Amino acid sequence: MCNHNHSLPTNNRQGLREHTRRQVPVMMDDRMETKLLRHEEEEEGDLKQRIWDESKKIWRVALPSIISRVSAFGTIVVTQSFIGHVSETDLAGYALVQSLSVRFINGILLGMSSATETLCGQSFGAGQHHMMGIHLQRSWIVDLITLTILLPILIFGTQIFKLVGEEESIANSGGYISLLFIPFVYNWIFSLTIQMYLQAQLKNMIIAWLAAFQFAFHISLSLVFVYKLNLGVSGAMLALLMSSWFVVIGEFIYIFGGWCPNSWKGFTVAAFKDLLPTVKLSVSSGVMLCLELWYYALLVLLAGYMPNAEVAISAFSICLNTNSWEFMISLGFVGAACVRVANELGRGNAKAVKFSIKVLLGTSALIGGFFFVLCLLFRKNLSYLFTNDERVADTVSDLSLLLSLSVLLNGVYPVLSGVAIGAGMQGAVAIVNLVCFYLIGIPLGALLGYLTSLGVKGIWIGMIGGVLTQTITLVYMIWRTDWDDEVKKASERLSRFYLNSDENSEQTSN
User: Fold this and answer.
1) Has residue 429 been placed in a domain?
2) In the chain, how many domains are there?
3) Organism's domain of life (predicted)?
4) Whole-angstrom Cα distance, residue 426 to residue 411?
5) Residue 504, in any domain of the structure
6) pLDDT value of position 398
7) Which residues pair with 223 in a beta bridge?
8) Is the dihedral of CA 407, 438, 287, 356 positive or negative?
9) H or E segment at 339?
10) Given this model, what pLDDT does residue 197 score?
11) How many CA atoms lie within 13 A of 399 on its CB side?
12) Which residues contact 465 (CB under 8 A, 6 or more apart)?
C-alpha cells in the first residue's frame, strides 16, 4: 500500500510550510492594522467630541462674559467719542483720566475681585455652593474699603496731573472729569464681583442681557444729554453714570429675587469672619492684574511728555482703547479659563484642567488672529470714530501695525492669566508681570521713544516687547505646572475657608 503521507515530495511539503508561515503573519498584520486604524478613528472621533464638549463649556462662560465686558467697556469708549467731538482738550483730559486714574483704580478693584473668581469657582466645583454667597459678601467689604482709600486719586486729579508734568489745560480738564468719575467707579464694587460670582455657577447670561441693554441705553442717553440738551462733558459723564448703575440694580434684583437659591442664603455676619485670608488672596490677585493694567497707563504717561502732547496722548489713547476693547473679548476667555480651571480643580480632575487649557488657548488664538487682520484693514478709519483731527488720525494710522500685533498677542496671554487665577497662582504671575513689564517693557519703550526718532511708535514697541516676554514666560510656567499638586492645594484652600451651612444662622435678611 502506498503511504499517502509521503505522496507529496519533500521539497513541496517544505514549500507549503514556508508559504503558510508567510501567510499567517500577513493575515495577522492585516488584522492588527485594521484594529489600529479603527482604534485611531475612534480616538480621533472621541477627541473631536471631547473638544466639542469642552468648547461648549467654555463658550457657556465666555460668550456672556464677552458680551457684558465689550458692552461695559463700550460705554467708556462711546463716552470718549462724544467728548472728543465736544473738545480736543477735553478728549485729551478724558484720555488721561481714563488711562491713568480710572485704569489704576479699576486694576486694583479687578485684581482684588479676582479672589472671588478663584474661591467661588473652586467652591462650586467642590459642591460647597452656600460658601459662594459668603465669598461674594466678603469681596464687597474688601472692595468697598479699598475704593474709599483710593478716592484721593480722583479728588486731587488736577494736582496729580500737574505734579507729573502734564500741560495745564489738559490737567485742569482731567481734574474736572476725575470728580465726575467718582460716583461711576463705585458701581465696580458690585458689578465686577457679581459677574465673577454668577459666571462661577454658569449663570452669567443675565449679565450679558443687562450689559447689551446698558450699551444701547447709554448711546441714547449720550445723544440726548450731549446734543439735545447741550450738556457737553457733564452730559456725557451723566449718561455713563446712569447706564452703569442700571446693570448693578438689575444684578441685585436677580440675586435677591431668588434666582440663586443654592449660593445666596441672605446677608450674614459670617462674611466678616476670616477676612484676613480673603484679603491676602485679594492683594496677590490685585498686584498681579494691577501690574498689567498700570503698565499701559504708564505708557500713556510717557506719551504725555512727547512734543505736541495733546496729539500724542489722544492718538495713543485711541489705539489703546481699541486694543482694550478687543481685550474685553480676551477677558471673556480669562473668565472661562478661570471657571473651567477652578471648577475642575475643585472636583479634583487634573487631566480635565490640562485639556481645557489647550482648547482655550486654541480658540482664543484664532479669534486674536481674526482681529489682527481686521485692524490692518481699517487702519486710519479707526481714529474718525473719536476725532476729526487729521494730525491724530495720521498718528493712529502710523501705529496701526503695532496695534494689530498687540491684538494678536491678546489671543494668548490673557488666557494664561485666567488659568493662573483659577488655580490661585496670582503671586507667581505678579512677579512675572513685574519683571516683564517694568524691567523690560517700560525701559525699552522709553529708550525707543525718547532716544530714537520713533516717538510714540517706540513706546508701543516697548509695550509689545514686555507683553511678548510675559507671554513666553507664562507659557513655560503653565507647561511646567504639576496639576495634580494644584488639586491638593485647591482642596487645602477650600478647607481653610469652609463654613458649614449650619453656621449661617446669623442671617440678617434674605
Assistant:
1) yes
2) 1
3) Eukaryota
4) 20
5) no
6) 79
7) none
8) positive
9) helix 309-347
10) 92
11) 36
12) 440, 441, 444, 445
| pLDDT above 70 (res 429) | yes
Q: What is the mean pLDDT of residues 279-286?
A: 74
Q: How many CB atoms lie within 10 A of CB 444?
A: 19
Q: What is the CA radius of gyration of the chain?
A: 29
Q: Does residue 15 form part of some domain?
A: no
Residues 6 or more apart from 437 whose CB is under 8 A from it?
291, 292, 295, 466, 467, 470
Tens digits of residue pLDDT in 138-186: 999 989 999 999 999 999 999 998 888 888 888 999 999 999 999 999 9
Annotate 227-296 with DSSP letters as a single string: IIS--HHHHHHHHHHHHHHHHHHHHHHHIIIII-TTT---EEGGGGTTHHHHHHHHHHHHHHHHHHHHHH
| Cβ–Cβ under 8 Å, residues 178 and 101 | yes
pTM over cut 0.85: no
| Number of neighbouring beta carbons within 10 Å of residue 301 | 20
Q: Residue 327's domain spans which residues? A: 57-498
* Residue 510 pLDDT exceeds 90: no
Torsion angle (degrees, nearest 10) of CA 18, 19, 25, 29: 150
Hey, how many other C-beta atoms are within 10 angstroms of the C-beta on 380?
Answer: 14
Query: CA-CA distance, 470 to 473, in Å (whole number)?
Result: 5
In a domain, 9, yes or no: no
